[in-house]
From TrEMBL:
<protein>
    <submittedName>
        <fullName>Uncharacterized protein</fullName>
    </submittedName>
</protein>
Length: 194
């Protein structure tokens, strides 16, 4: 075999071995951010600087934006404890006359989150009133607060909750992101005043 053919085969062999590893590494590279283009622990000023949306409302410990997630109008809320970002959530604003449509929205969002984060650690349909366990009544049970849905994922730094629940004839659908490193600040804020 000619020397040039040997070099060509060696080069091809190296490329075959290295290219998939390089592609694999780039596909699974960790993001430098924890949520959107934000890092947990940032203060309000840093979050406002990094967030591309315009602030809709601002409170002592909250920044609120309006955005679209998965083609659904949503509120984006950043929550701060001890001047550090600890929680972010999308609250879906679309209201349905057919209350079972919320379950369809939940399932679509769950599918998208599975594509992004993999299989949830836990996913449950929770009956708070066992007398209402017929699928036909799911929408009404949600609205009354007799039924809730929850799925949970985790990354290195974040717990992610997809939640669907109701009370007093109002249904809420949200995705909540909680910093694992700063969760102690959330717990501490709940304990104040007790």
């Amino acid at each position: 075999m000619k020397k040039s053919n040997i070099y060509l085969l060696i080069t091809l062999f190296i490329l075959i071995i290295l290219i998939p590893k390089t592609m694999l590494a780039s596909n699974f590279r960790k993001s430098e951010y924890d949520f959107r283009e934000i890092k947990w622990g940032m203060n309000m000023k840093e979050v406002k600087k990094r967030e591309s949306l315009e602030v809709c409302d601002e409170y002592k410990n909250k920044l609120i934006y309006i955005t679209n997630i998965a083609h659904r109008r949503s509120g984006l809320v950043y929550k701060f404890n001890n001047q550090k970002l600890t929680t972010a959530l999308y609250i879906f604003l679309e209201k349905h006359s057919n209350k079972s449509s919320y379950i369809n929205d939940y399932q679509k969002l769950k599918y998208l989150l599975i594509k992004r984060y993999g299989t949830p650690l836990n996913s449950n349909k929770i009956w708070l009133n066992n007398n209402c366990s017929s699928k036909i009544k799911y929408g009404a049970a949600l609205e009354r607060g007799d039924l809730a849905f929850a799925s949970i994922w985790e990354t290195d730094k974040t717990k992610i909750f997809l939640l669907l629940f109701g009370a007093n004839n109002d249904i809420e659908l949200m995705i909540k992101y909680i910093s694992k490193d700063y969760a102690y600040l959330i717990d501490k804020s709940y304990m104040e005043g007790l």
